[in-house]
Amino acid sequence: MSLATLLLLADGRLPSGGHAHSGGLEPQIAAGRVRDVGGLDGFLRGRLATGGLVSAAFAAAACGDVHRCAELDAGLDARTPSPALRKASRAQGRALLRAGRAMWPIPDVGRAPHQPVALGALAAAAGLTPAEAAVAAVHGTITGSASAAVRLLGLDPYAVHALLARLAPDCDRIAAAAAERSSDPVDDLPAAGAPLLDIGAEHHATWEVRLFAS
Questions:
Q1: CA contacts within 13 A on the Cβ side of 64
Q2: 106: Cα within 13 Å, side-chain hemisphere
Q3: 3-state helix, strand, coil in the chain (%, to 5)
Q4: Contact of 127 with 4, CB cutoff 8 Å
Q5: pLDDT tens-digit profile of 3-41?
Q6: Which position among 16, 63, 106, 149 has the lowest Cβ density within 10 Å, counted as fewest Cβ atoms?
Q7: What pLDDT sits at residue 1?
Q8: Of the candidates 44, 186, 48, which has an alpha carbon nearest to the alpha carbon of residue 114?
Q9: Helices 53-64 and 157-180 meet at what angle, rounded to 10?
Q10: pLDDT digits (tens, 9 = 90+) for 146-200
Q11: What's the whole-number average pLDDT of the chain?
Q12: How many CB atoms lie within 10 A of CB 49?
C-alpha cells in the first residue's frame, strides 16, 4: 500500500479536468434544492449512496482486472441513462488517462472510457489495490461537488470541509463495500441511480451560460 500514491491520485490538483464539473450540483442549486451547507450535506449523502457506490465498485473492478475494462465501460453506459452524464463521464475519463499516462504506463482501455474505469486502470498502473481505487473514487465523488458549492454559493470553505470530515466514515464504509464486490460479474455490480440528477443534467446541457460543464 502506498499512501502517497493514493493521495496523489485523489488530489484535486491532478490535471484531470475534474475542477470543471460540479457532479450535478449546479442545476440543483439553480432549482433551489441546495441553498446552504445543510442542503449540501443532503446532496453529498445522496451522491455517496448512488453515484459514489457505483463509481467505487467499477473503479475497484477495473483496478482488479484491467482486461475487464471494455465490459465494465459498457456496464456503466447501461447505468447512465442521461446522454449528458455519459458525455461528461467520458470527458473526465479521457482527461484522467492523459494525466495518468504522464506518470505511469497504462494499458489500452480505449480512448475515452468512463471516469471510474479510467480511474481503476490508473490505480492499477500505479500499483494500488481495488480497495484503494474505491477510496479514490468515493473521495472524488463528493469533494468535486463540495468545491463547486463553495464557488456557486459562496459557502464558508471551513464549514464545507467540516462537512467532508463528517462524511469520511461513510466514504470508508461505501468504499469497503464496493471493493468487496470488485470481482463480481458486471451485471451484478451496484446500479444505484439518481433520476433527479439525470434530469438535471439534461436541462443543464441546454444552458447557454453555466459555470461548470456538468
A1: 19
A2: 29
A3: 70, 0, 30
A4: no
A5: 888 888 888 788 877 778 899 999 999 999 999 999 999
A6: 106
A7: 53
A8: 186
A9: 50
A10: 999 999 999 999 999 999 999 999 999 999 999 999 999 999 999 999 999 999 9
A11: 93
A12: 15
Question: How far is Cα 155 from Cα 107, in angstroms, rounded to an integer?
Answer: 41
117's grid cell: 474505469
Going from the N-terminus, what domains does the chain have, and what CATH number goes with each? 24-185 (1.10.4190.10)
Query: Residue 176 carries which side chain, given as an amino acid letter?
Result: A
Whose cell is 463521464? That residue is 89
Evaluate whether 125 touches 59 at the Cβ level (below 8 Å).
no
- Cβ-Cβ contacts under 8 Å for 214 (sequence gap 6 or more): 21, 22, 23, 24, 26, 84, 85, 88, 201, 204, 205
